[in-house]
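quick one before i forget lol
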Amino acid sequence: MELKRLHIFITILLLTLVSSSALAQDLLARQAPVDRRMRSLDTLALRSAIEREEARTPASQLYDDWNNTYAHRATELPDSFRINLKHFCMPCKSRVVTSNFGARWGRAHKGLDIKVYIGDTIRAAWSGKVRIVKYEGAGYGKYVVIRHNNGLETIYGHMSAWLVEENQTVKAGQPIGLGGNTGRSTGSHLHFETRLCGVALNPAIFFDFRNQDIVADYYMFRKSTYEHEAIAANELRGKIGNGGYNASDVRGETIPGGAVASAHKAIPASQMKNAEIRYHKVVAGETLYGIARRRGLTVDELCKLNHLSKDVKVRPGQLLRYS
């Protein structure tokens, strides 16, 4: 009898355990979608919080403060920083660069001068937040500074009118002002600057005004090479002349002097002595051998022009001189 009772007890216990296990598994199965939804909500909440923070202080990881008192103030540059250039808008429709970035008239010119006419629409290059709307009689004239979420700040100078206010959030392509001739200016144009941590970078590194496009989806800033790249960008996308432009020239319907020669046209090595300096921008997967063959050079000639060894690996975005 005792043995029979023990057997019944064990059977009941086993049935209870099996039932509990099945119930537990059922509960876990029902809970899994809830957990997934909660994780999704957490992700959305985090993304929303990041977006709200960016709206208050764009590129806060690079800048310690937000104020409306100064146009630019140089701070410590990162050793490297990946800049997202997508979702852009050209600041104006003009294809005519009248003055390059760099030394000019015995002083540093920190941006590009783009030929526009008084009243032409000037637009935000990327989405961001307006930090400065001011007038500077001895310099920028009527100007606007926008801090963008990609880390850059852009400056738009010599405008005839403002269309935005300080601390206003703007979208890429939104009108922010009208072309003009205010401040230290000898003719109507847009003075356009791109700065990272207050340090001026050549806008030609990012923008190709002749083709009304950016040069790549991303730019990897490196503190060790950006000054060299600023010079190289002038050779690739620098000015195409001075003065004598009509409205059709400026708005891209024609190009003064006819078609602009491509910066990537191959030049045989035999003609290199009389050719202008040209650069090739490396894309992913290219090698020195492939670039040399495409540009009509030997690998030795390409390496000599760029002070490279033949076993070096080129990186995407690198500029190599080929003439």
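fyi The longest strand covers residues 128-136.
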